Amino acid sequence: MIPHILLSVSHVSKAYRMDEVEFAALNDVTLRVSEGEFIAIIGPSGSGKSTLMHLIGCLDTPTIGTLSFDGVDISKISNRELAMVRNQKIGFVFQQFNLLRKTSALSNVELPLIYANMNAKERKVKAVEMLRKVGLSDKLSNFPSQLSGGQQQRVAIARALVTNPRILLADEPTGNLDSKSGREILDMFQDLNKSGHTIVLVTHDMNIAKEAKRIVQIKDGSILSDKKK
Ligand SMILES: Nc1ncnc2c1ncn2[C@@H]1O[C@H](COP(=O)(O)OP(=O)(O)OP(=O)(O)O)[C@@H](O)[C@H]1O
Ligand SMILES: [Mg+2]
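Above: inputs. Below: predicted complex with adenosine-5'-triphosphate.
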């Protein structure tokens, strides 16, 4: 069977304009992601990895080129429509966890479901179930400051997955973790991919990139190589 193409990035460039000077953060990038893939995007600092993730994650739109997600052209839609695609189809995990500080683990995970207009009862059931899956059933009421780094990242993963997104995007998800917690998060990604989740992970570390089934190297805003294991 031909795998379903989930995401298609076609001849995409992204320029940032600062003080009349234009800087090309991405330059003619073409990339197709099929359902069920586990891809690592690797490259040095400033190579355009996060810029690419922001485009894929519907946080920004390209200067030139097209992106389509699940058959929908997301390169020209309004911010409102982008936010809808983001909420319904994309799970994002960041290096800094990005949890709400004065909010319990449970409420953090419920948040995307509030945006999705789910009722309170259903929301709680889903969030509790997701936190159980990431091994945090005993930490539902803890604030982020009352959790370890690895546990905070697991809350962030639960939050990313609670809407049942089509793709999980992770930008240096182990960058702020010690090696043991980092290993746990990578193991979790392996399990998620085995159970069918599509994952795109950004890293500058080849040892982490090797976890993925496909490695895309990026430098100065362009793809240098794209290799499947
Ligand atoms: N909002 C912005 N305005 C201007 N320039 C930007 C902006 N965002 C990123 N850039 C520039 O674009 C380039 C690519 O940045 P990007 O954040 O994508 O790099 P990266 O590969 O994620 O690096 P790192 O590994 O350090 O996170 C950098 O040179 C950066 O300075
Ligand atoms: Mg980055």
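Residues 179-194 form the longest helix (16 residues).
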